[in-house]
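FAQ

Q: What does a record look like?
A: Structure on top, sequence underneath. For example:
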């Protein structure tokens, strides 16, 4: 196999990336079709979904006595994507392990996060993205309320992350 002025490794990486792009497009088209074909009926009235108290796992609590409240308000038909609201009352510090990718939007309060070697504070209007398989230390001085969306990254995404990290 002649690679011209490019080495075999360069050609292999380019072919691998092209394969990932094709899989990503095909996977998203299939996911979009599945969602449209199985879309829930439009709401005809408001549905009350109050936050439900949830206990922090003792092994995750680093300080304080956090009180969690949460509710999931949307789940795709195949269960691959879910959205909800989460609130934590402090003062407290706890560790959170992300089994799936999670995107959050802060509505009220604030939280200081130690995540992947960086420390930063998220306040109302801020968004944060967490990758599956990572941990974050959350320090809640008083209260934080966030909306969240979680999803399992695709096989191609997980493979790509292993290659580039």
């Amino acid at each position: 196999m002649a690679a011209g002025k490019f080495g075999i490794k360069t050609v292999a990486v380019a072919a691998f990336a092209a394969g990932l792009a094709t899989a990503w497009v095909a996977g998203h088209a299939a996911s979009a079709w599945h969602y449209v074909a199985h879309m829930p009926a439009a709401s005809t009235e408001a549905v009350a979904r109050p936050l439900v108290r949830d206990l922090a796992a003792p092994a995750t609590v680093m300080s304080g006595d956090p009180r969690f409240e949460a509710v999931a308000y949307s789940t795709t038909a195949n269960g691959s994507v879910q959205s909800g609201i989460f609130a934590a009352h402090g003062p407290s510090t706890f560790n959170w392990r992300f089994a799936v990718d999670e995107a959050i939007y802060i509505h009220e309060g604030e939280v200081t996060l130690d995540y992947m070697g960086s420390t930063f504070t998220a306040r109302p209007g801020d968004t944060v993205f967490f990758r599956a398989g990572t941990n974050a230390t959350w320090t809640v001085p008083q209260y934080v309320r966030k909306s969240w969306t979680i999803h399992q990254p695709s096989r191609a995404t997980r493979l790509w992350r292993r290659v580039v990290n």
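Q: Is there anything notable about this one?
A: Residues 52-151 form a domain with the Jelly Rolls fold (CATH 2.60.120.10).
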